[in-house]
């Protein structure tokens, strides 16, 4: 399974979040560390141990 994420470099840090969870950002000193942190936050967000998690969805309107 693959999930899309948004990321960028800001000075010496890499920041990012999953498109599906735009309110939950993480960071890393390297791009690889950012990816590791993204995986950690994804597992936390999908563990069903947290309440009130906001997500982005798509709805077809006519």
TrEMBL record:
InterPro entries reported in the protein's UniProt record: TTHA1013/TTHA0281-like
Source domain of life: Bacteria
SUPFAM superfamilies reported in the protein's UniProt record: TTHA1013/TTHA0281-like
Name used for this protein in its record: HicB-like antitoxin of toxin-antitoxin system domain-containing protein
Species: Crocosphaera watsonii WH 0003
